[in-house]
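WARN no homologs supplied; continuing
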Amino acid sequence: MVVLLSRLPVADSLKLCHRVVDGLCGRQPPCRGDYSATWSLEEWLELLSSLTALFRLAVGNNSSDEEVTGGLSGVGSGGHADTVLSVLRAREEEIRRALLDRTNSISTATLQDFDWQLKLALSSDKISSLHTPLLSLSLDVREDGALRPVTMEMNRDELNTLINSLEAANKVMLQLK
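OK structure emitted
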């Protein structure tokens, strides 16, 4: 809960927020020992989790200042909400890069090339008349420096499912930009 932040003076909360962003970006996170007199271990972990989630969601969803301050309404007066917002806006691009790097590290495979062919299956060994369109999709995927071919054959329903999945992934990528 970000409400716990109000136990610190505003100047110290500014330092803490910057250290939380440092930890989010892969650098030295804040040290519990520096704040052990202010929060119990459980409160400390909850505060770190809440601040990290706030920074991730605000940047990932491209939230406006009003949306962020609305989520910080429980912090109270004294400038703590403004402090969190100022850290967020000052380091927004850095957080965005860290989130993108984290997403990119999920898989090292990249699509190098693709080719497709449309086929019409006229019959099979069980049915004398099919007339079913099939798409043959060949992908060249580069993974760990090696080029690996991936080939798949899909009917109309499977192709629609693939297209919907790719459109959803594209929508997520556009939101991250």
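Residues 40 and 79 are 23 Å apart (CA to CA).
OK
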